Task: inverse folding
């Protein structure tokens, strides 16, 4: 005997479609949280390396103050704090979104390796924008430590993407 679909079965199928749409929305929000978490970890790792660079005299936190001034946000608080918050926001929102969009086109079979390539790409802009006229050994240290900072950012971003993407309920 062949089962014929009933009116109840059809409405049940429609409910499944709605649930799939809901799951997709939840997945999108979840993926956004993964990006923010990855950006936070990556930016924290990058900040650690930049603090080392500052301790050897080849980077200055005043660069963050200039970043806050460029954004016109210095009226909301100390320029260094506002500048660092702008830096943190960029590391947590637009850059992880960009990484998620281009990750499959970057070299490396795993997200941490792709993340390091992504960090190296971001470094090309950073190294020019935050350059303060170093020469000799200072220039070598500046280039090396800022590159290391960006590789650390990409590594942290990629590790979080990889870890959270392998969770059973993730859509990344």
Result:
């Amino acid at each position: 005997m062949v089962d014929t679909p009933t009116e109840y079965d059809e409405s049940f199928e429609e409910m499944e479609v709605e649930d799939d749409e809901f799951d997709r929305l939840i997945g999108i929000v979840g993926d956004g949280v993964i990006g923010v978490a990855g950006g936070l970890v990556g930016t924290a790792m990058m900040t650690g390396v930049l603090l080392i660079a500052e301790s050897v005299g080849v980077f200055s936190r005043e660069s963050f103050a200039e970043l806050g001034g460029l954004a016109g946000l210095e009226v909301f608080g100390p320029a260094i704090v506002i500048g660092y918050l702008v830096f943190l926001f960029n590391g947590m929102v637009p850059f992880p979104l960009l990484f998620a969009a281009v990750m499959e086109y970057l070299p490396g079979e795993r997200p941490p390796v792709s993340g390091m390539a992504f960090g190296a790409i971001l470094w090309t802009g950073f190294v020019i924008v935050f350059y303060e006229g170093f020469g000799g050994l200072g220039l070598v240290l500046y280039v090396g430590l800022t590159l290391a900072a960006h590789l650390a950012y990409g590594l942290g971003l990629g590790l979080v993407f990889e870890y959270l993407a392998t969770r059973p309920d993730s859509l990344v």
In short: The helical segments are 7-55, 62-70, 79-92, 94-102, 111-129, 137-165. The mean pLDDT is 84. The chain has one domain: 7-165. Residues 7-165 form one domain.
